Amino acid sequence: MSKWFYTGKAFIDGEVKKDVWIEIENERIQTIVYNDLDWEPNSGSVIAKFRNSIVIPGLIDTHVHLSHQGRPDESWALDPVTTQPGDLSLQALENAQKSLLNGVTTVRDVGSRDFADICARDVINAGLFIGSRIIAGGHAITTTAGHMDGSRYIRNNIPYDSIANMGVIADTPEEAVKAVRQCILDGSDVIKINVSYSEPVRHFNKTYAPEMTEAMLHAICDFAHLNMRKVVGHSHGGEAVDNAIEAGIDSLEHGRFYTDKQFEKMAAKGTYLTPTLSPEFRSPAKVPGRSSMSQAWLDNLRSIMYDEVQRASSIGVKISTGSDAGMPYVPHGGVAYEMEALTRAGLSNKLALLSATKLAAENVGMGDCAGDIKEGLLADLVVLRKDPIQDIKVLQDKDNIEMVIKDGHIITGFKKTKIMEK
Ligand SMILES: [Zn+2]
Question: Which of 38, 47, 49, 40 is nearest to 8 (CA)?
């Protein structure tokens, strides 16, 4: 038997509709009726009425690292030699659970150590545990000395395979295709790559340099697309960004130091930008013990990042919300803070909400089954007491969440709502 619930308002296709009845049959939205105060269903069971609430699509965080904990200090640099695969998988599962309880029904992992995201995805999909739906990246493709070469953090001559990696090394187009094949074998739903790096050039007062050659970027995008995987790229500025856009990359992450011309190319190609403002937005301005290089990098990013997003948005680049959860100061489940940061960059509350629902769904390849409240889509829904279109920050308050539904299953809120009319 189908189940119905009523809310005073719903965020549907970018607009607020009033007096909304939603019917859920199995995992999907079966029927929606709105703008009719006196309408009542004559079949199925009514599970709740939320007269003063608003329902929004389940939130989607398109850039997380489930094996990372968001610890504020720099001790994470030791993780490649101190963590155990089993621990990481359980931590990834817990992070997916935290996310779901905060209204995030889908996360895209773009690099986890020891395939922790793939393990968590599989036990959630098998129905053994609840948790956000995980689109798993597994290991990301990186070059020797690249952004995700874990051996950069440890002493020389330690065998790469003996540390807890989140990267698979490739230095030529042939090795890059082999690395995509390896990711597919490992169980990756999406291919994460490192387009440009910054750390190894900071000593020279530079902000970025190409990590992958143009030929590698083409080889990866072509082969991944043949195998129905989207390609997502860590990137800062420079020629590597142009090469990645030309190669057909699907989403560029971070996006610092881009020119207007690069944003114009992205807008023309339909390339998404996931700005990941949270690590800089949520980190304290100064912290005792922070290295001078880390401080200078943080200051630099903070001084430009809102302007970058504003320029990208006004040029017409599609912005997708990704929190970079797992990085220092960014615990999992906090995509709402990323949405607040996007509004600081000039996005309206409505656009910030779209960037974490409809646009995010399109970015991760789920535009035809999630990200909106429409008949036939997956029933991923969040009922809120206060309206985020009025104040985006209400999404940060867990007490504001009345009910979370994923795949038609009520995850939280049912006991409170079953017998109550509000
Ligand atoms: Zn990241």
Answer: 49
